[in-house]
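Posting this for the archive.
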Amino acid sequence: MGANAVTSVPVYTAGEILTAADLNITNSGIPVFADSSARDAAFGGSGEKVLAEGQFAFLEDSNATQFYDGATWQPVGASAGLVYITGASFTSAASVSLAADSFTTTYDNYKLMVRLTAAPAGVTLRLRYRAAGSDDTNSAYQWAYGGYDGAFEGNITTDTFAVIAGLNAAANGYNALSMDIFAPKLSVVTYHALVGYGIEIAAATNAMSYFASGRFGNTTPFDSMSFFPGSGNITGDYKLYGYSNS
């Protein structure tokens, strides 16, 4: 954490003797936090301010100044069209899940960006939506994908999406995707569309650009999602953004 970062926002009582540390927090202006998790943990505990409308915060990890509107944290100044929500790195993971409540009613639509720097060769990367801490495994995932060479595959009866046909395990291998997700938190059918770079489905040896699209056929509201290889482990990172509604 930086020199101004705090881990709590104290509330003082009448007659309390303030220490130098107390005054340093008070004199720092807008409270500074390492990230959104540290921000959220700093309010509402014993001896801490209750989070209320009008509170400001600065996040070191994203260099963002925010204010609380009584329901959620909002960016200060002109509304950003694309707002960072969460992200993480992972190493040798059999499955990666976004944090709970990554999808909220604050945004209708989202963008997920995934980069894989290590993966088992020729294995399909798959994705599921999540609700209340569990993957939805109903056979309602409908999808299709294809590449520059005309390779095509689709299925409408599976319990998961296929989003990259074959992963690359080479030392200089690289797989990446940019995925738009439409209305995952709303009680409507959720759609997605993505583009990326992967490995040819037939031979699992040739690099290819590819596209994919699909939907979850039920009207389930989701708060998260997970992605995983059909077998083995993956290493890389992801970032999730929300599209502003206005």
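Helices lie at 20-27, 36-41. Residues 82-243 form a domain with the Jelly Rolls fold (CATH 2.60.120).
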